[in-house]
Amino acid sequence: MSKIRGMRRYGFLASSIGVTCAAGLALVPGVPAGAAAAAAPAASATTAGAAPAGGPAAVPGSTQSLPLVPRAAGRTRGRAAGAALEQGLRRADVRHFSLVGVVWDNPATELHGSVQIRTRSAATGTWSDWQDVDTHNADHGADPGTAERTGGHIRGATAPLWVGDSDGVDLRVRADTGDRTDTTAAEPPVPLPSGLRLELVDPGDTPGADGPQTDQPRTGDLSEAATAASAANSGLAPLGATEIPALDRADTERELLDLRGDELTDAQRAEPHIGARPRIVTRRGWGADESLRSPGFVYTKKAKAAFVHHTATGNNYRCSQTSSVIRSIYRYHVKSMGWRDIGYNFLVDKCGTVYEGRAGGVAKAVLGAHTMGFNSNSVGIAVIGTYSRSKPSSAAVKAVARLAAWKLGLYGMNPRGKTYLKSGGGNLYRKGKNVHLNVISGHRDGFATDCPGRKLYGKLGTIRSTAARYQGR
Question: Is 442 helix (H, G, I), strand (E, B) or coil?
Answer without folding.
Answer: strand
